[in-house]
Write a structure and sequence with these properties.
Structural class: alpha+beta
Largest sheet: 4 strands, antiparallel
CATH class: Alpha Beta
Helix content: 40-55%
Radius of gyration: 17 Å
Length: about 200
């Protein structure tokens, strides 16, 4: 049985009839803490002080395969962007790429045997389900040099998350052999009808 090992803000509310809060796998959180330790080791304590008490308490002890509240993921991304980026969430793209490097080469290496772009794309839904317990990432179309994917039924969208997914996808394509990849994004939070990614590569 899956368990939530931490709660933050309103995510601890399980009143009758309310949907369960979205959870994210610890591997996504571990990657972001590791990014700070690797890229800005001298600022790690500053990073911890900028977090909420609960997130700071767990930051050094996130477990790769445990589930955590999605708001905790967003907090890590936004705090990192504020401290080490431009405050416009653009750093979340880099964090997503870093997470792909870390997790696709380590804990998910047997499930996602990097070898072809098509192999990775066809496992996009599996990657999503392994990372989030709500919504889906659906491969809508693909050919030899392009693909279109859509995030559906995700109840708590956030720009930090969308940019992280875009960065993860960009790096995963590169790691599987795509060259000069370009990903165009549509996002409900920007007024588009859907959250989708249109990728092209050589």
């Amino acid at each position: 049985m899956l368990r939530v090992v931490a709660r933050i803000g309103n995510s601890s509310c399980y009143a009758s009839g309310m949907p369960a809060p979205v959870r994210v796998k610890g591997s996504a959180l571990v990657a972001r803490v590791r990014w700070v330790r690797e890229k800005h080791p001298d600022a790690y304590q500053q990073f911890l002080r900028a977090l909420s008490p609960e997130t700071a308490r767990l930051a050094g002890d996130f477990m790769l395969l445990d589930w955590y509240p999605f708001p905790m993921f967003i907090e890590l991304c936004t705090v990192l962007d504020r401290l080490f980026g431009a405050g416009d969430l653009a750093l979340c793209w880099e964090l997503g790429r870093y997470a792909a490097d870390v997790n696709l080469k380590t804990m998910y290496r047997l499930l996602f045997k990097l070898g072809s772009v098509q192999f990775i794309l066809r496992r996009a839904a599996m990657a999503w389900k392994m990372s989030y317990d709500a919504g889906e990432l659906v491969l809508r179309s693909e050919d030899a040099k392009s693909a279109q994917l859509e995030i559906v039924d995700f109840p708590t969208p956030h720009r930090a998350h969308c940019l992280s997914v875009k960065g993860w996808m960009s790096r995963a394509l590169e790691m599987s052999g795509a060259r000069d990849s370009v990903i165009k994004e549509r996002c409900k939070l920007l007024g588009d009808p859907r959250c989708e990614f249109a990728a092209k590569w050589r």
